[in-house]
Protein backbone atom coordinates (compact mmCIF):
# COMPACT_ATOMS: atom_id res chain seq x y z
CA UNK A 1 0.00 0.00 0.00
CA UNK A 2 1.49 3.40 -0.99
CA UNK A 3 2.37 5.94 1.67
CA UNK A 4 0.10 9.03 1.66
CA UNK A 5 1.75 12.23 0.47
CA UNK A 6 3.35 14.19 3.32
CA UNK A 7 2.82 17.61 1.80
CA UNK A 8 -0.67 17.97 3.35
CA UNK A 9 0.51 17.59 6.94
CA UNK A 10 2.73 20.69 7.00
CA UNK A 11 -0.03 22.73 5.34
CA UNK A 12 -2.61 21.58 7.89
CA UNK A 13 -0.19 22.14 10.75
CA UNK A 14 0.59 25.63 9.41
CA UNK A 15 -3.11 26.46 9.16
CA UNK A 16 -3.73 25.23 12.70
CA UNK A 17 -0.81 27.25 14.06
CA UNK A 18 -2.04 30.35 12.21
CA UNK A 19 -5.52 29.91 13.71
CA UNK A 20 -4.08 29.57 17.22
CA UNK A 21 -1.85 32.62 16.72
CA UNK A 22 -4.79 34.69 15.44
CA UNK A 23 -6.91 33.65 18.42
CA UNK A 24 -4.11 34.53 20.82
CA UNK A 25 -3.66 37.94 19.17
CA UNK A 26 -7.39 38.71 19.40
CA UNK A 27 -7.43 37.62 23.06
CA UNK A 28 -4.38 39.75 23.85
CA UNK A 29 -5.93 42.78 22.11
CA UNK A 30 -9.19 42.35 24.02
CA UNK A 31 -7.29 42.16 27.31
CA UNK A 32 -5.40 45.40 26.52
CA UNK A 33 -8.60 47.44 26.47
CA UNK A 34 -9.12 49.34 29.66
CA UNK A 35 -11.83 48.04 31.98
CA UNK A 36 -15.28 49.37 31.11
CA UNK A 37 -16.26 52.12 33.52
CA UNK A 38 -19.84 52.48 34.73
CA UNK A 39 -21.64 55.34 36.41
CA UNK A 40 -20.80 55.85 40.07
CA UNK A 41 -24.35 55.26 41.36
CA UNK A 42 -27.81 54.34 40.07
CA UNK A 43 -31.01 54.92 42.04
CA UNK A 44 -32.90 51.88 40.76
CA UNK A 45 -36.28 53.35 41.71
CA UNK A 46 -35.59 56.42 39.55
CA UNK A 47 -34.22 54.20 36.78
CA UNK A 48 -37.41 52.11 36.81
CA UNK A 49 -40.11 52.78 34.26
CA UNK A 50 -40.30 52.90 30.48
CA UNK A 51 -37.28 53.46 28.22
CA UNK A 52 -37.25 53.73 24.41
CA UNK A 53 -34.38 52.20 22.48
CA UNK A 54 -32.77 54.87 20.31
CA UNK A 55 -29.91 52.74 18.95
CA UNK A 56 -28.28 49.35 19.49
CA UNK A 57 -25.47 47.16 18.30
CA UNK A 58 -26.85 44.22 16.30
CA UNK A 59 -28.25 41.46 18.49
CA UNK A 60 -29.74 38.24 17.14
CA UNK A 61 -32.68 38.46 19.55
CA UNK A 62 -33.53 41.94 18.20
CA UNK A 63 -33.34 41.09 14.51
CA UNK A 64 -35.84 43.22 12.50
CA UNK A 65 -37.16 44.94 15.64
CA UNK A 66 -38.64 48.44 15.52
CA UNK A 67 -40.38 50.51 18.21
CA UNK A 68 -38.36 48.75 20.92
CA UNK A 69 -39.01 49.58 24.56
CA UNK A 70 -37.74 48.28 27.88
CA UNK A 71 -39.69 48.60 31.08
CA UNK A 72 -38.15 48.04 34.51
CA UNK A 73 -39.99 47.52 37.80
CA UNK A 74 -38.28 46.96 41.17
CA UNK A 75 -39.41 43.84 43.02
CA UNK A 76 -39.70 43.41 46.80
CA UNK A 77 -36.72 41.00 46.85
CA UNK A 78 -34.36 43.61 45.35
CA UNK A 79 -34.43 42.22 41.82
CA UNK A 80 -35.90 44.08 38.86
CA UNK A 81 -38.64 42.85 36.58
CA UNK A 82 -37.77 43.44 32.91
CA UNK A 83 -40.28 43.67 30.04
CA UNK A 84 -38.80 44.21 26.58
CA UNK A 85 -41.15 44.91 23.68
CA UNK A 86 -40.29 44.68 19.98
CA UNK A 87 -42.52 45.38 17.01
CA UNK A 88 -41.40 43.02 14.23
CA UNK A 89 -40.52 44.64 10.93
CA UNK A 90 -42.19 48.03 11.46
CA UNK A 91 -43.30 50.50 14.12
CA UNK A 92 -46.84 49.11 13.88
CA UNK A 93 -45.70 45.51 13.29
CA UNK A 94 -46.68 42.50 15.41
CA UNK A 95 -45.58 42.78 19.02
CA UNK A 96 -43.17 40.39 20.68
CA UNK A 97 -42.61 40.66 24.42
CA UNK A 98 -39.71 39.17 26.38
CA UNK A 99 -40.00 39.04 30.16
CA UNK A 100 -37.07 38.59 32.46
CA UNK A 101 -35.52 39.53 35.73
CA UNK A 102 -32.36 41.44 36.58
CA UNK A 103 -30.22 41.27 39.68
CA UNK A 104 -27.63 43.75 40.89
CA UNK A 105 -24.09 42.33 40.95
CA UNK A 106 -22.36 45.52 42.17
CA UNK A 107 -24.28 46.82 45.18
CA UNK A 108 -21.82 49.68 45.70
CA UNK A 109 -23.02 51.38 42.49
CA UNK A 110 -26.11 49.43 41.31
CA UNK A 111 -24.66 50.02 37.83
CA UNK A 112 -23.75 46.40 37.03
CA UNK A 113 -26.60 43.96 36.62
CA UNK A 114 -27.20 40.48 35.24
CA UNK A 115 -30.38 40.01 33.23
CA UNK A 116 -32.00 36.65 32.70
CA UNK A 117 -34.72 35.95 30.14
CA UNK A 118 -34.22 32.20 29.98
CA UNK A 119 -32.78 30.08 32.77
CA UNK A 120 -29.86 29.49 33.24
CA UNK A 121 -28.51 32.12 30.83
CA UNK A 122 -27.69 35.62 32.05
CA UNK A 123 -26.38 38.66 30.22
CA UNK A 124 -24.43 41.66 31.46
CA UNK A 125 -26.27 44.96 31.69
CA UNK A 126 -23.91 47.75 32.71
CA UNK A 127 -25.08 51.35 32.97
CA UNK A 128 -22.26 53.37 31.39
CA UNK A 129 -23.89 56.80 31.33
CA UNK A 130 -26.99 58.23 32.96
CA UNK A 131 -27.89 61.90 32.85
CA UNK A 132 -28.76 63.68 36.11
CA UNK A 133 -32.50 63.67 35.33
CA UNK A 134 -32.57 59.97 34.35
CA UNK A 135 -33.80 60.89 30.85
CA UNK A 136 -30.98 59.30 28.81
CA UNK A 137 -28.83 56.24 29.36
CA UNK A 138 -26.01 54.36 27.69
CA UNK A 139 -26.00 50.66 28.55
CA UNK A 140 -23.50 48.04 27.44
CA UNK A 141 -21.75 44.79 28.15
CA UNK A 142 -18.11 44.53 29.28
CA UNK A 143 -17.18 42.50 26.18
CA UNK A 144 -18.38 45.53 24.17
CA UNK A 145 -20.68 43.39 22.00
CA UNK A 146 -23.87 44.76 23.51
CA UNK A 147 -24.70 48.47 23.46
CA UNK A 148 -27.97 50.36 23.80
CA UNK A 149 -28.78 54.07 23.77
CA UNK A 150 -31.99 54.64 25.74
CA UNK A 151 -34.33 57.58 26.25
CA UNK A 152 -37.48 58.24 28.26
CA UNK A 153 -39.02 59.67 25.06
CA UNK A 154 -39.28 57.90 21.67
CA UNK A 155 -36.87 60.43 20.14
CA UNK A 156 -33.69 62.03 21.40
CA UNK A 157 -32.22 65.41 20.45
CA UNK A 158 -29.51 64.86 17.83
CA UNK A 159 -26.72 66.55 19.86
CA UNK A 160 -27.49 64.29 22.83
CA UNK A 161 -27.45 61.20 20.60
CA UNK A 162 -24.18 62.29 19.01
CA UNK A 163 -22.59 62.79 22.44
CA UNK A 164 -23.66 59.31 23.56
CA UNK A 165 -22.31 57.75 20.36
CA UNK A 166 -19.02 59.60 20.90
CA UNK A 167 -18.86 58.36 24.49
CA UNK A 168 -19.53 54.78 23.35
CA UNK A 169 -16.72 55.06 20.77
CA UNK A 170 -14.35 56.35 23.48
CA UNK A 171 -15.29 53.33 25.63
CA UNK A 172 -14.26 50.96 22.83
CA UNK A 173 -17.60 50.07 21.20
CA UNK A 174 -17.84 49.64 17.41
CA UNK A 175 -20.35 52.43 16.88
CA UNK A 176 -20.10 52.12 13.09
CA UNK A 177 -22.36 49.06 13.47
CA UNK A 178 -25.09 50.90 15.41
CA UNK A 179 -28.67 50.31 14.29
CA UNK A 180 -30.91 53.34 14.86
CA UNK A 181 -34.28 52.10 16.07
CA UNK A 182 -37.45 53.28 14.37
CA UNK A 183 -39.85 54.72 16.92
CA UNK A 184 -43.36 56.14 16.47
CA UNK A 185 -43.78 59.79 15.58
CA UNK A 186 -45.24 61.77 18.47
CA UNK A 187 -46.41 65.30 19.01
CA UNK A 188 -43.57 67.02 20.77
CA UNK A 189 -43.65 70.60 22.05
Automatic annotation (TrEMBL):
Signal peptide: none annotated. GO terms for biological process: response to stress. Pfam families: Lipocalin_2 (PF08212). PROSITE patterns: TAT. Gene3D superfamilies: 2.40.128.20. InterPro entries: Calycin, Lipocalin_ApoD, Lipocalin_bac, Lipocalin_Blc-like_dom, Lipocln_cytosolic_FA-bd_dom, TAT_signal. PANTHER family: APOLIPOPROTEIN D. Belongs to the calycin superfamily. Lipocalin family. This is Lipocalin family protein.
Amino acid sequence: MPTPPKTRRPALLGAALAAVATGAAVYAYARRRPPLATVSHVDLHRYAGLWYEIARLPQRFERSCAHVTAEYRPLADGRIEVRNTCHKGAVEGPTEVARGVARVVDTATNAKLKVQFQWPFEGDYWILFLDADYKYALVGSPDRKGLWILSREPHMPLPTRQNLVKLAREKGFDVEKLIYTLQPVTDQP
